[in-house]
Every structure is written in C-alpha cells, then in structure tokens.
Amino acid sequence: MSFFGSVTFLKSVASLEQAPASAGEIAFAGRSNTGKSSAINALIGRRLAHVSKTPGRTRLINYYALGAERFIVDLPGYGYARVPDAVSAPWEELLGGYLRTRAPLRGLAVVMDVRQAVTELDRRLLEWFRPTGKPVHVLLTKADKLSREAARRILRQVESEVAALLPVPSVQLFSSLRNTGFEEAASVFRRWLGEEPSPPVGLADDSAKMETPGKTGGLEIKTPGLKGEISPGQNALRFKAPRSGRRSGRRPKPSDG
User: Fold this and answer.
1) Domains in the chain: how many in total?
2) Residue 18, in any domain of the structure
C-alpha cells in the first residue's frame, strides 16, 4: 500500500539547472548499501527506485512525482562507491549543491542501516546540513535483521547521538521487508509537504519529535584528500567545518543507490 498516492518517475538530472519546477520536495540521502532505494519503494508502494547489487551506482538526482509539483528525491549515496575521481567529483558537487541551495527542499530523510548507525560520514552530513534550518528525519532501516529488544536499544542510542547534532531529532525504526514504520514515516513526510497538520505540542508520539533544527556556523563539503579516512580506492563525500566555523570536537574522517 502506498502512503503517497499515485507516484511516477519523472526524470534524472545531472545538474541543478535540469531540476523541475517544484512546490515542495523531500530528499532521501544515506550511505550506500543502507536500503535507501528499498525504503523509497516501500513508501511509494511500488518498485520505482533502482535497487542495485553494486552499492554506489546512483550518480544522478532522481525525481519521483507526487502530483501538484511535489516530489520525492533520491540523492546519490555516499561513502562506498569505488569510482574514478573524474566521475566522483561532479557527482559529489551535484549532491552538495542540491543540499545547500535547493529552495523547494522541505526536509531531509537520512537513511542508516540499524546495524551500523551512526557512522562518521553520517555525523558530518547532519552537522553540515543543520545550518539550512530544515528538518531531518532518520530512518533506521533493516530493523528486521535484529531482535525487537536489540533494535529498540540501538534506536535509543541513535536518538541520543543525533540529539547532540540536532536540536530536536526525529528517529525511527524501519523495515521494508516487514512493513515496519511506514505510517510513522509517512506522517512525518506528509506534514513536511503540508498534507497533515503539525501534532499538538507535548504529544508523546515519536512523530511529534521533529521540529526545525537551529542554526550554527557555516559548513562546507569537501571531497577526500590523500589523508581521508576512506579506504584506498574508495571515494566519498566528506563533510567538514571550515576553520572559522563551528567545530564539532571530532576530527574528520549508494546494495542500493
């Protein structure tokens, strides 16, 4: 069952100039091999987002139309793909430019594998995106791979870690295989698009946790240098604060797109 009605693939873009006119969109980002495309397919109710057996294959921004000039946007995965620098550089520039400047973007869904969250690259992404003032909702995918107790324990841990990076974090468990977390995620995303009213203040439900993040000093995206923490032969986005900006206290370190 789809929580977004009739969804169709519109186009893939290799530059922001090719992006469609938009009244509002929700972007999905995450490290490669976290189940990002599977999560999108589960939410839209059919297999539109490409699920590759080779992580890091999504190198374009993919637009899925919800109607009324609103979109789900599948961003390139980061942190795994072994591709030549000549290919990865424009790919990373496209992703960074979209996140920095795309005005119709209503919020960012960050997909993390519940068994590996939260990685250093995930932290950098959250720290870098925070100054945009736009909400972030974390989907801990593949929750079916763990026992309920173990999954809940990691959920609490991730909520605590993300709380240190964002003022009011929103985090949930999600499983495409077992249909876990669909309604919670859909409620958040519909609210971002103005389809549902904001929940009453003080509501205890997890869907009420997301508010607009505060703002911090400027941040920028940089690609890996010779001393990057990514293994030899890999390319990945590096989210790093400039010397004059807010420092996090840490030294810096898509099977589907």
Assistant:
1) 1
2) yes
Decide if 19 is inside a domain: yes
User: Of residues 206 and 20, which shows the higher confidence score?
Assistant: 20
Contact 20, 102 (CB under 8 A): no
Quote the pTM value: 0.73
* 135 to 110, 129, 210: CA distances (angstroms): 11, 9, 7
Q: Quickly count: other Cβ atoms within 10 Å of residue 98's Cβ.
A: 21
Query: Residue holding tokens 């921004």?
Result: 61
Alpha-carbon span 36 to 31, nearest angstrom:
8
Q: Which residue has the tokens 């807010």?
A: 246
Is 24 exposed, middle or buried, given 0-12, 13-18 or 19+ CB atoms closer than 10 A?
middle
Domain assignment of residue 23, given as a range: 8-240
CATH of the domain at 110: 3.40.50.300
What pLDDT does residue 169 have? 75
Q: Is the dihedral of CA 43, 59, 17, 112 positive or negative?
A: positive
Q: Is residue 251 a part of any domain in this protein? A: no
Structure tokens at 60: 């374009």
* Structure tokens that stand for 39 in this block: 């999560």
